[in-house]
Design a protein that fits this description.
Layout lengths: L2 H15 L3 E7 L4 E2 L7 E10 L3 E6 L2 E3 L5 E6 L2 E9 L4 H4 L1 E9 L2 E4 L3 E4 L2 E2 L6 E3 L4 E4 L5 E3 L2 E2 L4 E2 L3 E7 L18 E3 L6 E3 L8 E8 L6 E11 L7 E6 L4 E5 L4 E4 L1 E5 L3 E6 L9 E2 L5 E4 L8 E9 L2 E18 L4 E6 L4 E3 L3 E4 L3 E6 L2 E3 L9 E3 L8 E9 L2 E17 L6 E4 L4 E10 L3 E6 L2 E2 L6 E5 L3 E6 L8 E9 L2 E19 L4 E4 L4 E4 L1 E5 L3 E6 L2 E2 L8 E4 L2 E4 L8 E8 L4 E3 L3 E6 L4 E4 L3 E5 L3 E9 L5 E6 L2 E2 L3 E2 L6 E6 L3 E6 L6 E8 L4 E19 L3 E4 L4 E3 L1 E6 L3 E6 L2 E2 L5 E2 L5 E3 L8 E9 L2 E19 L3 E2 L7 E3 L2 E5 ...
Parallel strand pairs: 2-10, 13-21, 23-30, 31-38, 39-46, 47-56, 58-66, 67-75, 76-84, 86-94, 95-102, 96-103
Antiparallel strand pairs: 1-3, 3-7, 4-5, 4-8, 6-7, 8-9, 8-10, 11-16, 12-15, 14-19, 17-20, 18-19, 20-21, 22-25, 24-28, 26-29, 27-28, 29-30, 30-33, 32-36, 34-35, 34-37, 37-38, 38-40, 40-44, 41-42, 41-45, 43-44, 45-46, 46-49, 48-53, 50-51, 50-54, 52-53, 54-55, 54-56, 57-59, 59-64, 60-61, 60-65, ...
């Protein structure tokens, strides 16, 4: 199979890829109700499928031919989408059921029926289903029911029932009814019956009911009836209920209306209930309780309802209304495409549901099917054949509507050719017919091929086909019609072919003639030549007029398609012709030229990407080539590129440098694009391409002007820009990222849909690419209404202290602010009489006072776009003051004691007692075993005050401390201190040792420390009640006894007494004492004895530590100085006097190099002074401590040098 055969098959498969599919409706006609006679209606019908379905219309199941006032037109030229239009609609001619059919190769389907209803009204009295009786009678107070019902089928829209009372005469301008529902008269909304709940004498008269079509305005009236009210007094009548309908069937989704009309005297009311539960939440009861309405009716509302008549607060009568839920048919499964293999069985489901259960009917291509329908409503097809391929529809119908499902059934079977293949031999100029018949499912497509190629386009060849057969007719047969003809049948399940050979007798015919041919060195070159005839011709080749034979087989190969030149070289070119010969004749082609070329090549190519900057000079895109070429051409963006000149001049800006490349003298932005270099000769070509990116610094070409917008209005900010590569755009607001509410469109436009005051400010548009960035600003001011942003709910000025009432506002233009107090505007002109002034938007009170300034203040802010106001309550407060703190100034431990704090302020301050405990502030609480806290307010005086009492149940020594009374209110806080002192018995806490043995002549110190409140007085007594004489015994301030120069007669018992009973204080504390014995010895011992061994050892340790530290410091300093001297030592070698009177002293270092310095001598003083003025270093890197070394030298020379002749100069070296 050759290439042409493949092409033909591919074309066929493309057609087959558009697989056949049956028609399915996408739009079906829907019910139409015309609200006026003579109106216009439209029905729409659309279906999909392949091939596209054809749509026709039906009315009342009969084919409708649009004409006159009925027209049919395609939508957008599509014949599978049509609109049927009916103008001047009349009930008599146009009302009915409309449907459409859609048909294609797969079958036919019919849509649901859509009812067209036009206004009509039948006025005959026969259409009153219920007529009132001629007469009725009733007693006063009794209920009266007068029935009247008009046939709903006699009018569309449904006629409305009304009542008249005679002999009332109505004018044209009055309502057609004069009996209207009242509190005691009802007209049923369900059937038109009039119920007079309480009959009065004035109700007597003649009545007539009628029906009126609201659209047409026509009426029909019933027979007259006479109501007679018997004379008598109004009396009670037991309540009863009139129910127009006790069983109501309601379709899903519609509105259910239940009606119970009560009658009787006194007038009853209706209460509604539902069996087994509450009324649906969406149910509503009319104001007169007669109607219960349930919208969007569903299964939850299905059931039994009760209406009860309530009379004299009792349920007297009850009626039942049953609601039955109805549901139009609906399919649980949608339309489907079904396939079945030929010979198999197929079950088609019909899953529809509805209440009541729908009736099911099946249709095949709109024809009714009555067999093979199963109990589950499905349809079964047995041993299917190709004839079963069709459109099937399941119709489900009940009283509430209809629904249908569509199924496209396709029987699959492979394509098969049933025609016989018979070869044909014909003479030139005659006619031949080829026929091919095929079958299969889906219906196969039939194609014809000749010698593996599609049939040529020729007026002599005609093609005719029907559903399963294809025929070709060839007239005026020629030699070129020789060949093998293939009939191929194809469908998705397989293909089949037959081959028919046509032989045409006559001289040879060269059907493929040689042409001038070029080739590439080293390749095989085919020179085409094909001849045909019957008998088969012999082809002979000639090169440069010499016939080629089998001896040339090493260079030439003789093929059916022509002459092949193997491994062609330049010398193999020349003139060639072919000659075809058979028994009938011989023909030759024209000579053709064969040329062999070398392949051109590019040796230096431009890169795939080149990045430059706009304005760059002298750019060369390389494309160097070999010499074997015929053309050298550059292309830009696929268009041949010639010279490009500077605008307005004749100097080329871009030019081709043949064999080298494309040269740009100056690169401009418009030069960006893809460039390709193409080199070709007749045999071959070569090309390279690359993309030139011209970077251009971004620029903003336009930005919106500064603007003002109203609050909540939207605004757009445009920012147009240029640059390459395409810049990225970013918007910022007041130098911060945008809020999410802002939208930036792809073109860079910023949109704010609803501006707020926060959107005011500078909007910056920034565009950036790799060349840099540019920015521009636009200022937007949002005109916003005045708003109060911050005003405290309560504000507390301090009496006498200048205070500011805060009111922070916003808005544009900036709002003006007014202040009001207790509903009166405050006039602000500097300081007014009340001491008010305004600073900015805030109100200043110069000297607040509660009587003048307490109240409700209103801050009102206004501008052109609105106003705002907020209130703040002002209370002028006094700072808290502690006016009295007393109690427990001196108390004995164990007693009960109280300290009292009195404080004033407005409002009265909150008081608390506090004290310090281990650097923490403790607030005294009532839940303490040691004390309790109590508080009371006193308002009997002109100035109220508050007291807080802290009572110690049994005061202890630990309670002795400073207590603070803390007072705090919203105006501030203060505190006052109070010292609590607790008296207690003296206690000796550091008594003397039991015995002291001390050498004679020593000094003895005996400790005796005591504490108590008041502080106890220490007294000592010695042996025989006295202390050693001659001033040798003293008592220091701590109560310790010191005995100096201890003697033998100082031995004995010494007693320390502590007494804190002071004169004038009747504390009755006991005097406490402690004794010790002193013994004098002759043994060596310290001259001073302290009875506290811990203190003695502590002093010894401190002295030792200080001594050790001193030694360590001394040794460290000495080591540092010695090391410094060792590192840098200097020795004087020579000293001279200069003419300027300066001394030149030369030193040399013992270790490294010499240095030079000058010593100026000031001879004006009697004692010459040495100064170090200049220092000339021989070594540029002197030692680190050189300056300190010479400072020492300077000090020594000042005392030694008097002048240059001073003999002390001789000792300079040793001094240094």
């Amino acid at each position: 199979m050759n290439v042409h055969r493949y092409v033909a098959l591919i074309e066929t498969l493309i057609v087959l890829s558009l697989s056949e599919s049956g028609p399915f409706f996408t739009i079906e006609p829907v019910r139409v109700e015309v609200n006026r006679t003579g109106g216009t209606v439209q029905f729409t019908c659309a279906a999909r499928g392949f091939p596209a379905p054809v749509i026709v219309w039906y009315k009342d199941s009969r084919r409708l031919i649009p004409k006159g006032h009925i027209s049919d037109a395609p939508v957008d030229g599509l014949y599978n989408h049509r609109i049927l239009t009916i103008t001047g609609v009349r009930h008599s001619t146009d009302a009915g059921e409309y449907s459409c059919e859609a048909e294609n190769k797969m079958g036919i389907i019919r849509s649901r029926k859509a009812k067209l209803t036009a206004p009509y009204f039948l006025t005959d009295q026969d259409y009153f289903i219920t007529n009132p009786s001629p007469t009725y009678s009733a007693r006063p107070g009794q209920g009266t029911i007068i029935p009247c019902q008009f046939d709903p089928a006699a009018s569309w829209p449904e006629a409305r029932t009304f009542w008249r009372k005679y002999p009332t005469q109505l004018t044209v301008n009055e309502r057609f009814d004069n009996i209207r529902p009242t509190e005691s008269r009802f007209i049923s909304q369900l059937n038109g019956t009039m119920v007079i709940a309480q009959t009065f004498a004035e109700d007597s008269g003649t009545y007539r009911c009628g029906a009126r079509n609201a659209i047409m305005g026509t009426i029909s009236e019933s027979d007259k009836t006479r109501l007679t009210v018997e004379p008598g007094q109004m009396s009670e009548w037991e309540a009863n209920i009139y129910v127009p309908q006790n069983n109501i069937a309601v379709v899903s989704g519609s509105t259910a209306v239940l009606e119970c009309i009560p009658y009787g005297t006194p007038l009853p009311t209706i209460v509604w209930s539902k069996e087994g539960g509450e009324l649906p939440e969406r149910a509503t009861v009319s104001d007169n309780t007669v109607l219960l309405t349930i919208p969007n009716f569903g299964t939850d509302a299905d059931g039994r309802y009760y209406c009860s008549a309530i009379q004299n607060n009792e349920a007297v009568r009850q009626s039942i209304i049953d609601l039955v839920f109805l549901q139009p048919p609906e399919f649980l499964m949608g339309n489907k495409n079904l396939t079945v293999m030929e010979g198999g069985d197929l079950n088609i489901p019909c899953d529809c549901a509805g209440i009541p259960e729908p009736e099911v009917s099946w249709f095949k291509n709109t024809e009714s099917i009555t067999s093979n329908i199963n109990e589950d409503k499905s349809l079964t097809l047995y041993s299917v054949t190709a004839m079963a391929s069709a459109m099937y529809q399941c119709h489900c119908t009940n009283d509430n509507g209809n629904a249908q499902a569509t199924f496209a059934v396709q029987v699959k079977g492979p394509a098969k050719i049933i025609s016989e293949a018979i070869d044909k031999s014909v003479g030139q100029g005659t006619e031949v017919t080829l026929t091919c018949e095929a079958q299969g499912s889906p219906t196969p497509s039939i194609v014809w091929l000749k010698d593996g190629r599609a049939l040529p386009s020729d007026a002599r060849i005609r093609h005719h086909e029907n559903l399963y057969e294809s025929t070709i007719y060839i007239s005026d047969v020629r030699i070129t019609d020789n060949g093998v003809y293939e009939c191929k049948a194809i469908n998705e399940n397989g293909d089949d072919s037959i081959f028919i050979k046509i032989s045409v007798y006559g001289p040879p015919f060269i059907n493929v003639k040689p042409q001038d041919t070029v080739g590439i060195t080293g390749s095989d070159i085919l020179v085409p030549c094909e001849a045909t005839s019957e008998p088969v011709p012999v082809v002979t080749w000639y090169r440069n007029e010499r016939a080629l034979t089998s001896d040339d087989a090493d260079k030439y190969e003789f093929t059916e398609g022509g002459l092949k030149i193997k491994n062609a070289q330049a010398v193999d070119g020349g003139s060639f012709l072919c000659q075809a010969t058979n028994s009938e004749d011989s023909v030759s082609s024209k000579p053709v030229q064969v040329t062999v070329y070398n392949v051109p090549s590019i040796t230096h190519a431009l890169p795939s990407k080149t990045n430059v900057t706009a304005g760059q000079k002298n750019l060369l895109l390389h494309c160097a080539i070999t010499k074997d070429f015929a053309t050298y051409q550059w292309y830009r963006r696929g268009i041949p590129l010639l010279k490009v000149y500077y605008e307005g001049g004749n100097t080329p800006r871009i030019e081709t440098r043949k064999g080298n490349g494309l040269f740009f003298k100056t690169v401009l932005p418009e030069d960006q694009g893809e460039y390709s270099c193409n080199v070709s000769n007749p045999a071959a070509d070569a090309s390279v391409s690359g993309y030139l990116y011209v970077d251009v610094m971004p620029t903003i070409t336009f930005i919106s002007n500064n603007d003002e917008v109203r609050e909540y209005e939207g605004f757009w900010l445009d920012c147009l820009y240029e640059g390459e590569p395409k810049p990225t755009l970013q918007w910022r607001h007041n130098n911060t990222p945008l809020r999410r509410e802002h939208v930036i469109f792809p073109n860079g436009t910023l949109h704010i849909s609803s501006a707020t005051r926060f959107d005011s400010g500078a909007y910056q548009c920034t565009v950036t690419n790799r060349q840099g960035s540019r920015s521009k600003d636009v200022i937007i001011q949002v005109k916003s209404k005045a708003r109060i942003e911050n005003i405290p709910t309560l504000q507390y000025p301090i009496t006498g202290q200048r205070s500011t009432l805060i009111c922070e506002v916003s808005g544009f233009p900036f709002p003006s602010v007014e202040w009001w107090r207790n509903g009166e505007r405050i006039q602000l002109n500097g300081f007014n009489q009340q001491g008010f002034s305004k600073v900015g938007t805030n109100l200043v009170i110069d000297n607040p006072d509660s009587s003048d300034h307490d109240g409700i203040y209103t801050c009102k802010a206004s501008n052109d776009y609105g106003s705002d106001r907020e209130v703040t309550q002002v209370r002028v407060y006094d700072l808290p003051r502690v006016t009295r703190v007393s109690g427990c100034s001196a108390v004995t431990a164990g007693m009960e004691c109280s300290i009292v704090c009195e404080a004033r302020g407005n409002p009265l301050p909150v008081l608390s007692w506090r004290y310090k405990d281990r650097n923490e502030t403790v607030i005294a609480q009532t839940d303490n075993n040691r004390y309790y806290v109590s508080s009371q307010d006193a308002d009997s005086t002109s100035v109220p005050f508050r007291e807080l009492t802290l009572t110690f149940k049994r005061i202890s020594i630990s309670d002795a401390r400073t207590y603070f009374c803390h007072a705090e209110n919203p105006a501030g806080k203060t505190s006052s201190a109070h010292q609590v002192k607790v008296r207690y018995q003296a206690v000796i806490e550091s008594p003397p040792l039991p015995t002291y043995e001390v050498p004679i002549g020593a000094t003895l110190t005996i400790t005796c420390k005591a504490r108590g409140e008041p502080l106890p007085q220490i007294k000592w007594s010695g042996p025989k009640g006295t202390l050693p004489p001659n001033g040798r015994a003293t008592v220091d301030e701590n109560g310790s006894l010191i005995i100096m120069n201890l003697q033998n007669n100082d031995e004995g018992e010494y007693t320390c007494s502590a007494d804190n009973n002071k004169e004038g204080n009747n504390f009755d504390f006991n005097v406490v004492s402690s004794s010790t014995t002193v013994k004098v010895t002759s043994k060596d011992a310290p001259l001073t004895v302290i009875d506290n061994p811990i203190e003695t050892w502590l002093i010894v340790v401190i002295v030792i530590c200080v001594f050790v530290v001193c030694i360590v410091v001394f040794v460290s300093v000495k080591m540092i100085r010695d090391k410094s001297r060792e590192r840098h030592s200097y020795k004087p070698t020579q000293m001279t006097k200069s003419s300027e009177g300066e001394a030149n002293c030369q030193f040399e270092t013992i270790a490294p190099k010499p240095v030079m310095f000058q010593v100026p001598i000031d001879t004006s003083n009697s004692l010459p002074m040495y100064n170090l003025r200049t220092l000339n270093w021989a070594d540029k890197h002197p030692p680190n401590n050189f300056q300190s070394q010479f400072d020492d030298v300077d000090r020594q020379l000042q005392g030694l040098l008097k002048d240059l002749d001073n003999p002390k100069l001789d000792n300079l070296e040793s001094d240094i």
